[in-house]
């Protein structure tokens, strides 16, 4: 622990300052891990191709990002940044930028074909904070939030807008899997896929966020080792110029449960395809066949979801196995697109939301 001496009114004050270890190269990481410094400063690093900027074994430490972080080019399926640990504080400092330079991988087909593309950032954290990161042009998916518990992600800016014209695809903002008590708030995502995709998890809050250009906010359950999403709150968000506004989609022939998903005060603007989507026949290649009820959607609460769909789009789509959903509450005002006369499985306890 270092200290600084200041004077105030002629009195000397001794102020303790946390010691810091500066990293300018990935070669410095082993020594940083061994040090007693509480703050690790990442400064203007270029990470070699095919190598992760790997922060494992830094429990209790603060990781600060300064300057510009870049990565060498390689086709691979790893992660450009890995952060695992407990009681960590990950901070983006003023003027920093984590630049994936994703145009080198972009080929309009993301993870479905073409070049192998790495994830931007893998986090597996407990009792930790991730705040203030600025991330630009990810090769494909940005945040993998995997097996995390009690973690806050705040004031994060994911800027993949260049991908709209340069072939970006599958540039998800936040992907959540097998995680509990997660809060994502006060953040922005401009991308070409889901702003948020919750594949499984419990007690998750997505609040005060802006999603632009992508595929909307999704609870997408099925096809994984854990197919359960419970107590999910999406609140006070804006979805702008996405193809979908909000959706709950469960895998065709999947098994699991979706229980307690709430969309509260979500504003939609200029949605091109469908404002609200609730389906039980999802496949990666697109929904098809009759929906199956092996992943029932229970206690869905649509509260003050409002805004416009472009005139060639559809306001609301519900296509779930009749009898499988229960406990739905619905209050939406989506306009501008076409009403849908082919909705299936709407519980008889609510008015048909597709008719408007």
TrEMBL record:
Assigned keywords, A-Z: Cell wall biogenesis/degradation, Disulfide bond, Glycosidase, Hydrolase, Repeat, Signal
Entry EC number(s): 3.2.1.15
Pfam families: Glyco_hydro_28
MF GO annotations: polygalacturonase activity
PANTHER family registered for this protein in UniProt: POLYGALACTURONASE
Identification of the protein by name: endo-polygalacturonase
Family under the similarity heading: Belongs to the glycosyl hydrolase 28 family.
Signal peptide coordinates: 1-20
Provenance organism: Apolygus lucorum
Taxonomic superkingdom: Eukaryota
Enzyme class: hydrolase
Keyword rRNA processing applies: no
Catalytic activity: (1,4-alpha-D-galacturonosyl)n+m + H2O = (1,4-alpha-D-galacturonosyl)n + (1,4-alpha-D-galacturonosyl)m
Gene Ontology biological-process entries: cell wall organization; pectin catabolic process
Cellular component aspect of the GO annotation: extracellular region
Database matches in SUPFAM superfamilies: Pectin lyase-like
UniProt gene name: PG3-3
